Amino acid sequence: MAKSKRQAKNKLWKRPMFWFFCIFLCAFVGMLKIWFQLDPLVPFSPIPCSIFQQEPSISRGFSKSLLNVVPMSEKSGEYEEREEKQSGFWEQPDGLGYRPCLDFSNEYEKSSGELLKERAKYLVVVVSGGINQQRNQIVDAVVMARILGATLVVPILQVNVIWGDESEFSDIFDLDHFKKVLANDVRVVSSLPSTHLMSRPVEEKRMPVNVSPEWIRAHYARKFRRDGVLLLRGLDSRLSKDLPSDLQKLRCKVAFHALKFATPILELGNRVTERMRSKGPYLALHLRMEKDVWVRTGCLPGLSREYDELITNERKQRPNLLTSRSNMSYHDRKLAGLCPLNALEVTRLLKALGAPKNAGIYWAGGNPLGGKEALLPLNREFPNLYNKDDLALPGELEPFASKASFMAAIDYIVAENSDVFMPSHGGNMGHAIQGHRAYAGHKEVYYAKQKTNAPILPEFFSP
Question: Which stretches are transmembrane (predicted)?
Fold first, then answer.
């Protein structure tokens, strides 16, 4: 019996399958050891698919997924340079030969002659909000004046209750350029003529949302015939987004041609752009991390319990500031994608999109809640992080420190000229720049939820 067992054991050592199993086992243990060195939490995580769900550290984000593991020996300046060239992060979308098209119909051109002779009807508008919200309302004011066949008085910028900015239209925009570009579309005057100064303008406060051109003509024709002057406030989202082709093209003409920033703003914005450009290709990141943004959106900044309680208490004291969907909890808003990304989340997203570590980043927006500490997660991973205060020369911004619209215009110029643009949340500036970049040349836009090319609007572009 002992002899037969010994013979069986000898036969086992001689079998090829035994040696194949040993080699496979050694190879498997070796791979496991290497994987564990790259990320010690992954192999023994109790959570399925945890390689895509880790949150304790940015350094364990998407960039170390199985699709993009970086060998330790290659982490050098040479590797980072090669990574930047190969990542495709700076690659621009294919415009497919489309270009902006402002060819108005023959009917539009014929009606312009009669409309521009009108001297009896004047439209006065008061626009509110931040500069980009005001821009949207100015665009709609021009279109409404065209619909009504009225002369447009230069829009009045309402003093912003949050920033206290008392800037007038000509302080922010080039008024002469505005009038010249629209000379064949709408008659624009700086003030009411003496014949209408004694008229008490009819103030309309009850305009519904998304009204059609037919509604506007039917509702205001009689008031114009009676008084000659119509005053409109609160135009935000009042005019329908679904307009006839000629009126949609007029919107583009106003937004992307007529509304040119005033010379001092344009010159300083271009200087800041050149300083940012001198560092190489750059990403413009619009951060929405100000205190009022967290309060209005019903979201929490996630900096610490102290800051979360601060925002929660502020919202309880001023519930009217919450913009919409008041029945949703913070967690519901977060899951629905309605909350701005904080610096940690922005960093994870940039790494997932393949942004090189040495990428130049210009961040636009107001001072974040928590100050510079709120930006530390972003600054650690992407050290080439700048804003207008970092790039401006000493004293260059001081004359405009109290003018929020001026500062926002500088951000707009630098962001519009960037290689890549990404907003951390929706908003008037983010939407305006996305549209502007699409219109100006299909420039790359990374959205907070997903990467996508800047949209192409076939009706307003021709091959």
Answer: 16-36
